[in-house]
Amino acid sequence: MKQVTAPVEKYCQSKTVKVITRATVQYRDTLKESDIKEAISRKYPEAVVLIVSVDERGRPNAMPAGWSMFTSGDPPMLAVSIHPDRFSHELISRTSEFVVTFPGEDQASLVELCGSCTGAEVDKFDCFSIPTSPAIEVKPPLIEGSVACLECIVEVTCRTGDHTIFAGRIVRGHVSEKPTRRLYNLGGEGVDRFRPLKPREITGSSK
Ligand SMILES: Cc1cc2nc3c(=O)[nH]c(=O)nc-3n(C[C@H](O)[C@H](O)[C@H](O)COP(=O)(O)O)c2cc1C
């Protein structure tokens, strides 16, 4: 067992914060180098979103994504990372608009279904009877049953490795009036990996 005592004043500069002058961290020698994929697999649980886009005729498509993040507070911006093979990549590249939804606890099957086929071949909204309502400023619709939906207009596109990041300015937000919990991906395969977090849920391997 090692023990480290470190001053923390420099992290507490706000006058409203009660300053704790010293913090004690105890740890054991638990870390070993691993395969990078194994280390990445410890990221779960991971938030999952559904990205909604449309074609030129206004026909919507939806894909689940684990790789999304807020990138700016003012203006509010959100980025999603999408592989060029996805039909959604083609649609967002063409229209520069998307809606990000936080799926609710009853939408695990919908997330699984939308991730198991491509909108290039399947009209997912028709086949899976996805309930929608219109967005205000963008053409992609909102998905009913979501915890929240964010309307985004693409401002930055950049290639990172084998994916493209689309960073959108959030122009409108919508929230569920019915209390519902957000879905997370707990790792692994199949629909059971998607569920809301339980209190004190711990991070672990996807295996
Ligand atoms: C939980 C989950 C997370 C995913 N995350 C991403 C992601 O962040 N980026 C991506 O390009 N594909 C991701 N995918 C894969 C796409 O959702 C999947 O290939 C989908 O069928 C693409 O649909 P589309 O071709 O209609 O756009 C994910 C799939 C699942 C099930």
Quick summary of this structure?
The protein has 207 residues and is mainly β. The protein has helices at residues 36-40, 87-95, 108-114, 124-127; strands spanning 2-7, 22-27, 46-47, 49-54, 60-65, 68-73, 76-82, 97-102, 132-133, 142-143, 148-160, 163-175, 184-185, 194-195. The protein folds into two domains: 2-32, no CATH class; 37-195, Electron Transport, Fmn-binding Protein, Chain A (Pnp Oxidase, Chain A).
Alpha-carbon distance between the two ends: 29 Å
Q: Structural class of the secondary elements?
A: mainly beta
How many domains make up the 3D coordinates? 2
Approximate shape? globular
Bound molecules: flavin mononucleotide
What does this structure look like?
This protein is mainly β. The chain folds into two domains: 2-32, no CATH class; 37-195, Electron Transport, Fmn-binding Protein, Chain A (Pnp Oxidase, Chain A). 12% of the residues lie in helices and 38% in strands. The protein contains four helices and 14 strands. It has helices at residues 36-40, 87-95, 108-114, 124-127, and strands spanning 2-7, 22-27, 46-47, 49-54, 60-65, 68-73, 76-82, 97-102, 132-133, 142-143, 148-160, 163-175, 184-185, 194-195. The longest helix is centred in the middle third of the chain and has 9 residues, at 87-95. The protein is globular. It binds flavin mononucleotide. Flavin mononucleotide (FMN) binds at residues 48, 61, 63-67, 81-83, 86-88, 115, 117-120, 163, 185.
